[in-house]
Amino acid sequence: MDRAEYLRRYRQEYKDHAKRVTLTFSQSEYRSIARDAKAAGLPIAGYVRRLALQTPNPAKATLPEPLASEFADLDRVIRTIANNVNQMARHSNRIAHVLESQEVFLHIRDLELALRGALAAALVAGSPAGTGEGEEASPEGDQDGQDPRTPPP
Question: How many other C-beta atoms can be found within 10 angstroms of the C-beta atom of residue 78?
Answer without folding.
Answer: 14
